[in-house]
Amino acid sequence: MDEVETSGRRLESIAKELAQIAAFQAALPVTAYDVERIEDNGAVWELIRDLTEKAEEILAMRARDARRRDEKGAKIITFAALERGTIMRTVVRADVLKSPDQAARIRELHAAGDLHRVTDEQFRELLIFDRRVAFMPIDPDELPLGALMVRQPSMVASLVDLFEQSWARARDVTTPFDRMDRLTRREREVLGLMAEGRSNGAIARTLSITEVTVAKHVANIFCKLDLSPAESDHRRVLAVLAYLRTSGR
Description:
249 residues, alpha+beta, elongated, transcription, Tscrpt_reg_LuxR_C, LuxR C-terminal-related transcriptional regulator, DNA-binding
């Protein structure tokens, strides 16, 4: 299991653990919980808005198109926080950028100071305020179901650590990612091995696929990166250079 998969699975494991803690604490005669399950999406938004207006640092992981979330007024509040000097960093899934509107929105936020990086890894949405309070969706596939609000210091610290790992692996949103993000995950794996100097045969053995399949992936990579055959250019080298630029190597 590679590091990306390990990080994604760890985040999912933490989310399940937090849900169990929230269910247990809901039965206790106390009013302040370390982990609270909030099923009213309007209440979640109000808490996030209030924290955004006061926060000095906000860390976010966005796994889906913003139009699928209830974020009315979020852009205005975000820009107001940036004007106050709030430090913001956001990791966004690469497939979100397939929408031209979303890509433009992300670049706008990045230029305004909400620094964005792009990743191919799978993860659950996450929002952390001042490294003290974190929010995660109760169900990553059904955001209207509400969120888990986490205050327990060691759990928040673990979530911050997972964010930092994803941030370190992600590529900057200002890099030329548009063409590279046309690639499937398997094509990106093939291109990564090409960048290591592997032949098609070696790539086939590493990925346990046939050389014919590798050749098809390579052809698709050339096509998606707009690398047409030319006597003066070596498409394999040009593809690797594009990969190295976008991966920050």
